[in-house]
Amino acid sequence: MFRLMIKQAKTHPSLIPLFFFIGLGATGAGLYLSRLAMFSPDVCWDRKNNPEPWNKLGYNHQYKFIAVNTDYKQLKKNGPDF
Known about the structure:
Elements: H1 2-11, H2 16-39
């Protein structure tokens, strides 16, 4: 398949940006999925030692990828401890 892509790119040079951006998009999607799998509080890989890892997160822990208007360091706790 890779040989066919190189052959097509040699005969039609206008396909080179298409192959580049498709590869870039696939790489970005794979990196984002691996980030979600490793660092998301909703994913639990070890059920024996820490079955509910989301309960150990603090109220000022930033779990979103991008927080536009919220500064998580300045948040104050609004509820009781359980």
